[in-house]
User: Fold these one by one.
Assistant:
Number 1:
Amino acid sequence: MTTDTQTFTLAARVLHWLMAILILTMLFIGVGMVASVSERHELLIRIHKPLGIAILVLAVLRLVVRLRHPPPPLPADMPALQTLAAIASHWLLYALMLTLPLVGWAMLSAGGYPVMLSESLRLPPIFPVSPVAFAVLRHAHAWLAMLLYLTFLGHMSAALYHGLIRRDGVLSSMTGYRPASHVHELPRQP
Amino acid sequence: MNDPSPPARRTEAHLGAWALIFAVAAFAVVAFAYVGGWLAPNRLTPARMVNQFQLNAGTFPGYRRNHAKGVCVTGYFESNAGARPYSSAQVFASGRTPVVGRFALPTSNPHAPDSSVPIRSMALRFALANGQQWRTGMNDMPVFPVSTPEAFYELLKAQQPDPATGKPDPAKLGAFFGSHPESGPFLAWVKTAKPSASYATETYESLNAFVFVGADGVRHPVRWRMVTETTDGGSDTGKAGDPDYLEADLTERLSQGPLRWHLLVTLAEPGDPTNDATKAWPDNRRTVDAGTLVIEHAEPQQNGPCRDINYDPLVLPAGIEASDDPLLPARSAAYATSYLRRTSEEAHLPGTATAQPEARP
């Protein structure tokens, strides 16, 4: 375990980068599968469902890690608006990571579909069968996914802004890579 | 932290970094839009496929975009365990599996007269005791007119009514079939096909191939059909002048007792095409009787139990898998789009078509 308060814990960093890959993959699979009539459609759906549940499980785990290990403080000199945006977007990301798989699961339940994670592994329904609920949840699933992608774009751009322009150690707190020249020039909130 | 440089010079110094950030974000947006089909107007998407159905026949809110006219039925499948050696699906163990089904016409107009198309369809949802499901949609014809989603889309486009005549342009249809020799067997069949007077007298074919997987893991490419036990063609009473004679006939027959079909599973030999629904398999292929479908009740689809079921042929239980037939994923994708549109209309979501007074909600 690290005692460095400038860096996320190893568990947080591993979860972050693993989930970054999984969630980005998931978003591209989702948007691609609904726009395809080819064999790709089937293949992607078969990946989409178990991957969604994997993300849900990891998101719960991550939330636990996040609550048990507070993240490094943001730089003291960050404008208030940026600090607010950083905090709000992070909680939005957590909310979407947890909500999207649940909405997808509820949507299939409402549509009367068996929720199959593999050839034979089936999850129980979590919502009563209702065509109206299906329609609402199915649209919500798509719009929340769009919101997640937009939030990701903001998150990634902000991370690059911190790393390339502000050079304030925020990006390295998650990469774990900290060039020696940066360490001492970074006053932090105590 | 004190920064000695004024803001303007600082921004200038970071121009390269800003450009890089912008480029990365722009790339991510374009990649997402490309995968989502927004930058590929010629890609065949489920939405474009379903749009073409609506262009051809109009939009009927709340109804399926194809096979819109139909009737719900309920009953059960009584397995005789005949297919057990080939598929581990629970539905093929001895015993009963409840079924919610639907007979329908392959038309997008829910008000079309029953005599307007020579084809009838049977869709079934088997609810297995283990919670898995098997959904299948079959037609009473021996082969499908085309073998790929792209050709099917081209066929739909060729069938789009000419605004001047209100009918498809024969020249376009001729051109389509001229360049699609694989439609030959279907055209030969349809030339002699007559609209049947009853859903009960028909035998319904899976058309697409699937793969049965046994408990031993051995894979068996198959096609199946529901062969009717009903030989009596029925009287044509009420047929003249009644555009909805099929539902009336079915209700009348079921008031006398259940109707039965045998599920016959045909096992492919090596070399039989599994990816081409335009080609029938030779008649001498081994066929297994898997059990009896017993249909007991019929209900109008307006509020019947089949109304909210999407008969997606790729909702399959363990022991049955899709084949390499390219029509299957296209059907699955297009049915999902149709299902979302009609359920959205049912939910009166903003931007969806609204039902006319005579149409069901």
Number 2:
Amino acid sequence: MKSKNSEPLFHIVKRKSMPMKNQMLVRLLAIAAAVIVCAIVTVITTGMNPLSVFVAVFEGAFGSARKIWITLQDTAILLIIALALTPAFNMKFWNIGGEGQVLIGGLGAAACMIELGDKIPDPLLVLLMFISSVGLGALWGAIPALFKAKWNTNETLATLMMNYIAIQIVAFFTIYWEVPKGSGKIGIINQTTNAGWLMQVGNKYMLTIIISVLVMVGTYIYLKYTKHGYEVSVVGESEMTARYAGIRSGVVIVRTMIISGALCGLVGLLLVGGIHHTITTTIAGGQGFTAVMVSWLAQFQPFAMAGAAFLIIFLSHGAAEISTSCGLNQSFGDIITGIILFFIIGCEFFIRYQLVFRSGAHVQMEITNVQTEVSDEQTEVTDTKLGVTTAQTEDSNGKEEANQ
Amino acid sequence: MKKFLSVLLICTMLVGLVGCTGGAKKSDSFKVGFIFLHDENSTYDLNFINAAKEACDLLGVEYILKTNIPEGQECYDAACELADAGCGVVFADSFGHEDYMIEAAKENPDVQFCHSTGTKAHTEGLSNYHNAFASIYEGRYLAGVAAGMKLNEMIANGEITEDQAKIGYIGAYTYAEVISGYSSFFLGARSECPSVTMDVTFTGSWYDETAEKEAATKLIDGGCVLISQHADSMGAPTACENAGVPDVSYNGSTVDACPNTFIVSSKINWTPYFTMAIKNTMEGKEIPTDYVGTIGTGSVELTDFGPAAAPGTAERVEEVKNNLIAGTTKVFDVATFTVDGAPLDSYMADVDTDPEYQGDHEVIVDGYFSESGAGFRSAPYFDVNIDGINLLDTAF
């Protein structure tokens, strides 16, 4: 009797769909599991009460009115970048050049502020800043798109490399405009005159938040209800289909990347003109890359992106607060963030796929009651109640065949 | 996702409540806030962090430390958050924090903002914004004396000839703080070893371990027989230990990592300044607009000498130190250096920072360059390229 174990321990099977209720349950369980693992890690590595660490995380994001505003503002920035990347992603154009598109947009705004600061009226200056930020961002998006459309170059590499070009250009201008000479920093631009500083709506955080909501709604409408949005998804499905339907995919690719880059450029304007009032190579802070995760985590749904962006910012502010209020190194906060993200992203896998274990097959058999497998002159019958595979005797084998 | 969010928000609020009740038992003691560019992995920030804790423990006040705060709006946010949290004084440690500290100071007139290494307090005219520095050029001069004695020892042992006495120096940026540092170090070394020359290279970053290590290796390959640095990582000391080249480090002793090559390190001890500023605020007294700590006030220190130091170094350095305190030796005595072959009889330094870097104050006083001098400002403004120092690159 040969025992037959050629079937792997489990299969990964795509789920048809999971009811919303179950999806939420899985996510909640994932968060609960993440919290438990974080607590264990906290106790083992620091000996601290994990509750105090969790309290610190919430304090970091919501500890005071100012902290709540900053959390919302930072969420808004990350959200706009994620939204900017999304039309390209829908087209299956992997734009990982958000960082560079934001930076070069910021550089455009900074250039206007520094060179034209006190020479032209403020409204005109802000208009020029807007044009140069959005225009440069669009250009930075259009270049890899043109190469893709014309020569089918790899857009992932091209957009990635455009980041480094942008960083080096900004590094050059940082030294060109540095104050004082040799210090490697520009400092606040027009600190006394405030020329080119974007207007405040209510408080200094509100403008960014309002713009992010507008961009979110706009992106939703654009992708869902416009002809452009439809063309983007067709090109994403298949370029052949697009051609068959009379859509010129090259035009769609370039047009979509111009929009993508322009929105990133807008973020550069907000960062330089509205928030930091300076330009550094690190002003985008890696958010061009983080936004990729936000967009994916939200499955390219604009409104869900607000939630995903919020989650990431909440965790990063929390991580910073851990180092301040618990006296732990920043790395510890990053570990906690990593664990939580691991569970949250990991649970999406279980929502979309299921693991079918070898024994899992038996569960299905209970429904069909008896099932036989015939292979290489050997018939095996699975004992459904015990879940143990047993080989049958020649006699029962014959009976089985008779039954069939 | 929306439901998920709402659940998350509810959790947030619940834990927020717990947090609030937990935080209700706040003590009434005086609070002090500190903002650091990096964390304790940077020797520069570690030096500040240690001083912050020491000063607060000395005075028995509460402190909040914010690490890894970039030189952007984050600094303003952090400073305002510290003010919100009830801090009476807020300190920041990095040059690029200055503009954002000024913004925070304008918005919180009842809180004192103290910025180390900054240059603008004396021109901003804010009563609650202050700059501080220390006469670290004196410390570097003394470290230079130790380096010069090491070179003399190497010449006496026949390891190098007099002409080969070349020092390598790794600087971060090309502005006054760094120029003042390497010039004083060089003058200290030359006071002992007259034939010394120095190559200087720049990394364009305050903390870039790889770049600093590569720079040190480049200098050693270029014939430098002793290395010093003005950048904050362990890159240069490590490269020296690997190559067996004596090293004068900065911000604190590196003897543990470099037992064979460490000579000495100079550093600023910020405890006297922090203690003074906190105490003055608690007592309602004013903090000086520009504060310069000196060797005399304990603000400038040398660490213990490492095994690589030449015999007799401690005694000689002590002697020079006493001369500096007594004022009989001046680091930037114009008789000891030339610029383009000529003595520096007059120099208009850019004390009040402006975009054109125009000189605005005559700083040659009584035959010496008055660095961080009374009536000027605390941060260095010595930006002269003196003869004997060779700048390999000035890209930054």
Number 3:
Amino acid sequence: MVRWISDEVGEEAALLEALGLASADELFRDVPKKARLGRLGVGAPRSEAEVVAEVDKLLERNRPLGRFASFLGGRISARYSPAAVDAIVSRSEFYTAYTPYQPEASQGMLRALFEFQSLWVELSGMDVANASLYDGASAAGEALLFARRLHEGRRFLVPASLPWEERSVLANYASGPGLVVEEIPFDDRTGRLDLEFVRSAVRQGDVFGVLADVPNGFGGLDEQLFELKPTIGDVPLVVVADPLALSVLEPPGSYGADVVVGEGQGFGVAPSFGGPLLGLFACRREHMRLAPGRIVGATVDAYGRPAYTLTLQTREQHIRRSKATSNICTNESLLALAFVVYASVVGPKGLASLQASLAEKARTLASGLGAVEGLRAPRFEAPYLGEFAVELGRGTAAAFLDRLRRRRVLGGHPLADPRPGATHGPERLLVAPSESVGEREIARYVAAAKAWAASGGGR
Amino acid sequence: MSGYRQARWDEPPIWDLAHAHAPEPAPAIPGVPDRFRRHEGLRWPELSEPTVVRHYTRLSQMNFGIDSGIYPLGSCTMKYNPKVSELLARRPGAAQVHPYQPEATVQGSLEITWKLERLLAKVTGFPEVSLQPAAGAHGEYTSLLMVRAYYRDRGELERRTEVLLPDTAHGTNPASASMAGFVTREITSKDGCVDLAALKAALSERTACFMLTNPNTAGLFESEILEIAEAVHGAGAMLYYDGANLNAILGVTNPGRMGFDVAHLNLHKTFATPHGGGGPGAGVLGAGEALAPYLPVPRVAKSGRRFRLEYDRPRSIGKVKTAYGNFGLDLRAYAFILAHGEEGLRHIARRAVLNSNYLAARLGRRLPRPFRPLVKHEFVLSGTPLKAKGVRTLDLAKRLLDEGVHAPTVYFPTLVEEALMIETPETESKRELDEFAAAVERALDDSPEHLHAAPTSCAVGRIDEVRAAREPVLSWKDLRAGTRADSAKVETP
């Protein structure tokens, strides 16, 4: 029997005796017979050693990133995390705690979350950050609903280049209140947003928010970002930003963002096949009472000493119920802790030099791939940091990636929406050299791409 | 008194650990126009690793977790988090896997996902399970979007605009329903359970869904569940199961058997994945025949011996999160189920309910229990008798912190005045239950002065939450702007 259920000698008998029961089964007499179950069919218990063996056997069927030169990116990255980060998040006082409903007993997590909020405020250039949301995509969804609280209208504009997963999540968040997500076209040469489209959509009216991402879905930095707020006036501007990029880029608060969201997994959290992730959210001070999610505030205790607590709770579901700004209860506190520990161990200079080094790797790779026949790399003429889009002149992205994989290169991920019936544009990939690749791995990628080209590129 | 003392470090915020220095401008990146460059640089301290580690270690010592002591938060199912799960989730084969790797290189992750879905299908009694939602409330919300899509396809969405729920519902239920575009109506409970007559009167052709947790937040099993299901279905509406309280009924009954159409489970409750001080969670969904086609994509499918991500689900609502589920937690839950097996899962429910009834009987001698005595995983007490000596439930909760235990959930469910909601899962021994009961009894017998002054053994004393909300200080930026919490006069207790 598992050791985790308390089973100390004689205790169950003592509990039953105190209740005057012969068996614990009597405690279920209020469950109707017709609703009772037979066997579940989940198998026999296993010892801890057997569980480890079984799970390890299954995990052997994975080929983790360490076996490849990885160029996988998008919103999720596999960066090296200093061992100190895991040492802190492995402290059970942190990881086995619940939401800090009793702040006096939970000052440690509350203070870490206050530092996390402070860091996202600094990175984003905004005033107020919450204590995290589920992931970058759902944070964008919350930003959509938040923007609707700031401004009337039914239409929310997003770049057509936004990753399809985020567009799908946004469409879901929009669907409840009957809102519509519309795509802003981009310039085919540069990938830049069509500002004229935005201007005329806003002029037509009914637009309650405009979203832009930095870097955008093609890895590009779009100068139109700086023109968006002047173009849309009091319509809220939502910016989806990468936290590492913000270590070197102007914060969105400086060019008029009303809300800045992003994916924070890359700071100290392993990719773990896509979860858990970390949603970042920040807004301006005048809108803080409309923000979603938990927020930690500083105050004092009965003796006037600094103390921290969850605050502005009248926005939240456990108090406001159907009128809450969001249904958020669980968030991603432990990942928020990892985020702030990572940034503090690496430091601002370390973050900027990591971003600079990733950008250099991307440039080296782009110049190598740019010379390969049948590839357009980078696809768009725009500045970029650590990732860029590649377009195949022939064959499929899947076939190209498959070919690279045989040379132990994970060459990026296809940008197309894989759902049948989705509009399928040109075959494009997003390519992002990971922190662990060097000149040799980049050369291996280029050589594999050349071999693909020489073989006719899947023709 | 227990002699408990939490660490009380005078630890400054992390930015005060470094010498004050102006942020340096970010380096120029070749190819990136100067206009994009962060000219002021990032304002954050440059610190040595030992300084950072010591800082957060000290903070951890001012935090109470399930490994520190009993954590009887009602409806939160704070049980021991097996250490082996932490070990497994950190294996490179689990952690160092990118969701966009080709399927052939992630067969292990896909197989674990598939197997966990099959196991949870058995536990919930539903044909299909999706691990995509990131938390319980996210699962509720996703389910309601599915309900919405279902009625849209049937041409009934325009008239089915209401979601009904009992007044004992978790706050996330009405909040999720509103976000999904429904109007909510609360049904007043009778003796802590759904009033079937009131429900029947409220059900109509406008009802899209009735949301229920069973056992409910009063800790009571809704014995009329089959009649409730019949009434809801009779009105052409869907029945939603909030799985926050599933721990009590593992292997005894399940949402499918009770007649529910869709359910969410919290892996961080019933299946012991650590809650991380507020998250991560995982909000698995189970769906019956009607709603299964609407589950988020991708689904994990098995073809022969290979596993793949299936996107060909034309009626799916699409995505609610990037990538798939919270795999790191799914893996822990999978290990938890393997270890327990059939016998263990059934034992969980028996022991959790036994613990709860034992503690309820003992504490029920001191404080009123508003409902019938037989409870499931949790029970509710009312702190109203304390009012006679000028003490509130809040004071009792704070006083309990001085005993080296966590306080129960307080002031919920709202239908009980001065409520205390207590849940002590199967991992708590009789000795822990007795010590907790003794702590409550000592607190009840303590003087009003002590109760009002509590806590005195935590890192800080009673916190001024009103001030936090009235004059919000939410970041370092606010502190730099000279808000008052920074410069508060410090008095020694």
